[in-house]
Write a structure and sequence with these properties.
The chain is of the alpha/beta class and 339 residues long. It folds into two domains: 202 residues, Metallo-beta-lactamase, Chain A (4-Layer Sandwich), CATH 3.60.15; 125 residues, 3-Layer(aba) Sandwich (Rossmann fold). Helices cover 26% and strands 25% of the residues. The protein has eight helices and 20 strands. Helix 1 runs antiparallel to helix 4. The protein is globular. It binds zinc ion (ZN). The site of zinc ion has 5 residues, from loops. The site of zinc ion (ZN) has 5 residues, from loops.
């Protein structure tokens, strides 16, 4: 009933695709990051993620128009089939439930219950605390399909308090030295978390337009964010922390030659060469994924008979097998009946 087909996860009994990168008739979208969220005829998701996806799709169409990349016939607007967290619904012989993944606001895991047992797809998740998204839940299941982005032992993050202190210290020191502190953070999730951390410390915040658009969606969903300004080339004077997407080639122009220091906010900060690789002044391990210990803890809590892995280090399979866990890594090209 559950398979890998056309490089995507597919639940044949439900005619439901999962986080597919190709347009589908009906697809469950776990959260709004661009490596999971694409337009489909019908998107099955939480109400908050529906708002996030709609906002992102609108922005990408607007960007494409500006750069004349818009396809001649844009896809028709997608419909959203919305389900609140922990409100199960029936689909034929099965019961489906979305529950919080703790990755970004509105991010959901999917539980499918049927005759053959309980199956959970985590999507991207984290167990660590967050100021701006719902705390993750773990449900017991028979088969667990989980991401393992940080499935190597060197990726054990410092405590959240230490990470927050590092972010605040970086900003404070830069401002004391007359430099604009710049934080590279994904516009969805990481940026709002950085805003909350800086805001708690009383550091004034200016954000890129994409971050601003997402912050507005967060606020409309009831998330309290500190005061912030949208970047404006005329008024920005370098005395406020700047939150900018990592891919922002526009940053040098935005800084207008003002002295600055840049910190990348990423779990990959645990790599020794991360600062050099990203070409920044510092890397701080603020992550919206589970670290190595949290991946193991999740399995201990969910107690599955079988663990399937995707999105991460393949050798995590062997680490789990050494712990006596029945684990398999899913190759994207496999045709495989999973459940
Ligand atoms: Zn993600």
């Amino acid at each position: 009933m559950f398979s890998l087909a056309e490089r995507s996860l597919y639940v044949s009994d439900l005619d439901l695709w999962i986080d597919s990168m190709r347009p589908r008739a009906r697809c469950y979208v776990s959260h709004g990051h661009s490596d999971h969220a694409r337009e489909h005829d019908t998107i099955v998701t939480t109400p908050v993620n529906a708002r996030i996806c709609a906002s992102r799709f609108e922005r990408s169409i607007a960007r494409a128009k500006q750069t004349s990349l818009l396809p001649e016939r844009p896809r028709p607007e997608c419909a959203f089939e919305e389900h609140e967290f922990n409100e199960p619904w029936s689909d034929g012989e099965h019961t489906l439930t979305l529950f919080p993944a703790g990755h970004v606001l509105g991010s959901a895991q999917l539980l499918i219950e049927g005759e053959r047992g309980r199956f959970v797809y985590t999507g991207d998740f984290k167990l660590a605390r967050s100021y701006t998204c719902e705390p993750a839940e773990v449900k017991k299941c028979d088969v667990l399909l989980m991401e393992c982005t940080f499935g190597r032992p060197q990726y054990v993050f410092p405590s959240r308090d230490e990470v927050e202190d590092a972010i605040v210290s970086f900003a404070t020191k830069a401002l004391e030295d007359g430099c604009a502190p710049v934080f590279n953070a994904y516009s969805l999730g990481k940026a709002q978390e950085a805003m909350a951390i800086l805001g708690k410390a009383g550091i004034p915040i200016t954000v890129h337009g994409a971050v601003h658009a997402m912050a507005r969606v967060y606020e409309a969903a009831g998330v309290q964010l500190p005061p912030y300004e949208r970047y404006d080339a005329v008024t920005y004077d370098g005395t406020r922390a700047l939150i900018w997407p990592p891919s922002g080639k526009t940053l040098p122009k935005a800084l207008k030659g003002k002295p600055s220091r840049t910190a990348m906010l990423t779990g990959w900060a645990m790599d020794k060469n991360a600062t050099f690789r990203y070409g920044v002044d510092a890397c701080i391990p603020l992550s919206d994924h589970a670290d190595y210990d949290a991946l193991i803890r999740y399995i201990e809590l969910a107690q599955p008979e079988k663990v399937l892995l995707n999105h991460g280090w393949k050798d995590f399979v062997w680490r789990l097998r050494r712990l006596g866990i029945d684990a398999t890594y899913l190759e994207p090209y496999e045709q495989l009946a999973l459940f």
